[in-house]
Design a protein that fits this description.
Alpha-D-Glucose-1,6-Bisphosphate, Chain A, domain 4, 4 helices, alpha+beta, 8 strands, eight-stranded antiparallel beta sheet, single chain
């Protein structure tokens, strides 16, 4: 299922795995390139596992090797995580990535992935933001499901 407004894109899917296992793959930046449906994430250093709001983690991007610092702004262990990317040492320009995990039972989870650029203030990023479609979000969900076999 997908939802789309002018500046908020969401995709959701049920995955045959527990919420804690799925959350661990998203909360550990070193794992993110494995499931990134945008093919935008090249790598992240180990030992950056997110544990709460206010933390940051760094990712290297595929298209130009640039580094992004991701500022964690929402966090509930096993249930929700969201971050605002920024260039190192800069304030985030206002686009948010969110993951939500709703356990259906011990082995199944409804996962919702949202890209929200309603607060984006840098017009040079609008075209890239518009290119982040529900299909790309769904690709991340599908890759995540493939990793866990669900």
């Amino acid at each position: 299922m997908t939802e789309h407004t002018a500046t908020v894109v969401t995709s959701r899917r049920e995955i045959a795995a527990g919420a804690e296992r799925l959350f661990e793959l998203v909360a550990d930046p070193a794992q993110q390139p494995r499931w990134d449906g945008n093919d935008n994430l090249a790598e992240a250093a180990a030992n950056q596992r997110v544990r709460g709001t206010g933390e940051t983690f760094a990712m290297t991007l595929t298209h130009d090797g640039a580094v992004r610092e991701n500022h964690v702004v929402e966090f509930e262990e096993g249930r929700r995580i969201a971050w605002l990317p920024a260039e190192p040492g800069q304030e985030p320009p206002g686009h948010l990535w969110r993951w939500e995990f709703e356990p259906l039972d011990a082995g199944h989870t409804r996962v919702r992935h949202t890209y929200d650029w309603s607060g984006l203030t840098d017009p040079t990023r609008f075209d890239r933001a518009r290119a982040t479609t529900a299909d790309r979000l769904r690709a991340s969900l599908d890759r995540l499901a493939g990793i866990v076999g669900g």
